[in-house]
């Protein structure tokens, strides 16, 4: 079920043109919360919605609105419940929400490599794609 919600979260990020940092941070928040709390399958999309909301608040100049996120769930995540879930997640994670994700390292690493700007752009795009696949749990070895 996590994989299905992760794919949905990535689709929302792509549809809304979120910053590259949003999806990995949202997944980081969700995975850390799930490691601490057992929730019902029916609550997983609500958790994903709230994690996207928190991640956009931390990483985007214009965060996604609760109403918009609720509409992406076909209103199975009611707008009036989102603030309570947001507070519950933040409190459970002790307000440690601004985690460092792999996306944060890409620019620093590429800066040290002798690549022209066109190649750096391509490598950055591929690195972000790889990071998204890893965060979704789609990489198999």
Automatic annotation (TrEMBL):
Signal peptide limits: none
PANTHER family per the UniProt record, alphabetical: CYCLINS
One Pfam entry name: Cyclin_N
Keyword Plastid applies: no
The entry's keywords: Cell cycle, Cell division, Cyclin
GO annotation, biological process: cell division; mitotic cell cycle
Listed name of the protein: Cyclin-like domain-containing protein
Domain of life of the source: Eukaryota
Family to which the UniProt record says this protein belongs: Belongs to the cyclin family.
Start and end residues of each Cyclin-like domain: 7-91
Xref: InterPro entries: Cyclin, Cyclin-like_dom, Cyclin-like_sf, Cyclin_N, Cyclins_cyclin-box
Coiled coil (UniProt feature): none
Record bears the keyword Cell membrane: no
């Amino acid at each position: 079920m996590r994989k299905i919600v992760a794919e949905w979260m990535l689709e929302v990020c792509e549809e809304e043109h979120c910053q590259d940092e949003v999806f990995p941070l949202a997944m980081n928040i969700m995975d850390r919360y799930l490691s601490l709390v057992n929730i019902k399958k029916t609550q997983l999309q609500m958790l994903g919605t709230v994690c996207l909301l928190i991640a956009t608040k931390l990483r985007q100049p214009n965060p996604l609105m609760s109403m918009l996120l609720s509409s992406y769930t076909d209103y199975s995540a009611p707008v009036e419940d989102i603030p309570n879930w947001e507070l519950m997640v933040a409190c459970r994670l002790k307000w440690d929400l601004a985690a460092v994700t792999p996306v944060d390292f890409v620019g620093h690493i590429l800066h040290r490599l002798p690549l022209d700007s066109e190649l750096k752009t391509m490598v950055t795009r591929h690195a972000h794609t790889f990071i998204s696949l890893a965060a979704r749990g789609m990489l198999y070895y």
